[in-house]
């Protein structure tokens, strides 16, 4: 049996404000809603359901924020993971607009939760999208034009090659754009703040409590090694860490490992690199993403693996990507290197469903979970309280299973991903 684990040895765990310990669930309990998973999805659902007067038990197999929510790049993006032009071609203008609006609401929701619950998580406005191939610039200009004209976006500045070089301290990009309403935060402190808010609203949170199986009956029941929870509704909020709880979700939500390093504090050098302190993400298929921490470290993510294991030397694995953009950091010490597991879907849009009466699932945010997972918690709460409309905008999105089932999907995925990663270099 999998044993509960402590937080990954990351910069975030080292600078977490308070790692309040929650107890293990012992014995039999009942609640209106049982949530499985203590990341943004589960914590936001717990908070919003509790605020609506529902009794909530959330169980987390490890520590609150142990998964992707406590390890990610901390970037809060706008809209959805796919461009609006793509969403329009897939789903038509009307649904593309609803998806855009919910994505924008997600961004606003994160910022309003930080403010409302006084979550101290180093929020910083500004995000730059960097284009690494000259031939992508036309598509970028068209997308920006669409956003301005049809979606009323007014906080985008297009950056020339010289401007992006000056903004990011690297000559690796042909151009890009800056968004002022997007930005970045300390992801673990944000998760811990959500947990505090959910607890204050009345949710009961348990750590070291893994759901082993769900049994159907007049009311569904979640079994753990030391107890049971009987509830009217259950939410699966396990994202890339679900191991055998629900085959429908697992066929559509594929785990991927991604890696981050944090340098030593760079002092004045940091502000010379990124004077506006924006986060940055680039146009590579395996995205490079980076930002400065509040104490002036470079937090840089890049490199993905698809097997079962993390590289043995994560710092070295990510550093070679960092130095492609920032050779001037070759003499800088790398203080932390860690990995995490996110989850993607075939179309890179979230998978949200009511699987059967009383059983909900949400995951597969495809690298855009800071906003989308938080928002999914609100939508799950609405759906469980009988307001399906906004949840259904996502629930009706098509979601194919990855070919090969949970066993053989890895080899086909590795082939596909390796091909796309190769294209980054062509
Ligand atoms: C390295 C990395 C960088 C990323 N960068 C960004 C970024 O910059 N911006 C962005 O928007 N997104 C980013 N993401 C994605 C984002 O972190 C995720 O989409 C988001 O955190 C998902 O939240 P979640 O609550 O659904 O899942 P998680 O935070 O992964 O939480 C799932 C939890 O479920 C628990 N669990 C699993 N099974 C059980 C069980 N049986 N019983 C009890 N508990 C269980 C796990 O222990 C885990 O804590 C990144 C992800 C990674 C890994």
Jot down its keywords:
single chain, 426 residues, alpha/beta, nine-stranded mixed β-sheet, eight-stranded mixed β-sheet, 25% strand, globular, binds flavin-adenine dinucleotide
Structure write-up:
The structure is a single chain. The protein has helices at residues 11-14, 40-51, 84-116, 137-151, 161-168, 187-200, 247-252, 268-273, 314-325, 369-384, 389-395, 405-425, and strands at 27-36, 56-59, 75-76, 124-131, 156-159, 175-184, 204-206, 213-215, 221-223, 227-236, 254-263, 279-282, 289-292, 298-305, 334-344, 351-356, 359-363. It is of the alpha/beta class. Strands 3, 4, 5, 6, 11, 12, 13, 14 and 15 form a nine-stranded mixed sheet that branches. Strands 1, 2, 7, 8, 9, 10, 16 and 17 form an eight-stranded mixed sheet that branches. It is globular, with a radius of gyration of 21 Å. The chain starts with 10 loop residues before the first helix and ends with a helix. The structure holds flavin-adenine dinucleotide. Flavin-adenine dinucleotide binds next to α2, β11, β15 and α10.
């Amino acid at each position: 049996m999998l044993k509960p684990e402590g937080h990954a040895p990351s910069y975030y765990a080292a600078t977490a404000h308070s790692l309040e310990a929650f107890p293990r669930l012992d014995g039999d309990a009942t609640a209106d809603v049982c949530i499985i998973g203590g990341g943004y999805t589960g914590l936001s659902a717990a908070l919003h359901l509790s605020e609506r007067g529902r009794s909530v038990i959330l169980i987390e197999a490890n520590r609150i924020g142990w998964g992707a929510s406590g390890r990610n790049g901390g970037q809060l993006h706008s809209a959805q993971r796919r461009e609006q032009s793509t969403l329009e071609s897939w789903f038509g203008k009307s649904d593309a607009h609803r998806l855009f609006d919910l994505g924008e609401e997600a961004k606003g929701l994160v910022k309003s939760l930080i403010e409302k619950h006084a979550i101290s998580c180093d929020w910083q406005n500004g995000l730059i999208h960097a284009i690494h191939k000259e031939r992508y610039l036309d598509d970028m200009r068209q997308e920006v034009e669409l956003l301005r004209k049809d979606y009323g976006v007014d906080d985008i500045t297009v950056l020339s090659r010289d401007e992006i070089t000056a903004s990011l301290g690297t000559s690796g990009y042909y151009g890009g754009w800056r968004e002022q309403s997007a930005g970045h935060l300390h992801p673990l402190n944000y998760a811990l703040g959500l947990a505090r808010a959910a607890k204050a609203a009345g949710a009961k949170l348990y750590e070291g409590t893994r759901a082993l199986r769900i049994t159907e009956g007049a009311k569904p029941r979640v079994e753990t090694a030391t107890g049971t929870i009987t509830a009217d509704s259950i939410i699966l909020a396990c994202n890339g860490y679900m191991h055998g709880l629900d085959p429908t979700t697992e066929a559509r939500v594929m785990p991927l490992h991604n890696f981050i390093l944090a340098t030593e504090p760079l002092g004045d050098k940091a502000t010379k690199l990124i004077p506006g302190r924006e986060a940055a993400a680039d146009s590579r298929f395996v995205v490079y993403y980076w930002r400065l921490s509040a104490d002036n470290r470079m937090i840089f993510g890049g490199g993905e693996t698809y097997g079962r294991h993390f590289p043995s030397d994560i710092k070295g694995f990510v550093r070679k990507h960092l130095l492609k953009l920032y050779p001037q950091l070759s003499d800088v010490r790398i203080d932390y290197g860690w990995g995490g597991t996110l989850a993607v879907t075939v179309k890179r849009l979230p998978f949200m469903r009511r699987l059967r009466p009383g059983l909900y699932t949400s995951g597969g945010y495809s690298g855009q979970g800071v906003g989308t997972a938080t928002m999914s918690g609100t939508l799950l709460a609405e759906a469980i309280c009988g307001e399906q409309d906004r949840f259904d905008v996502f629930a009706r999105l098509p979601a194919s299973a990855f070919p090969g089932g949970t066993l053989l999907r890895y080899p086909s995925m590795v082939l596909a991903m390796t091909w796309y990663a190769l294209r980054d270099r062509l």
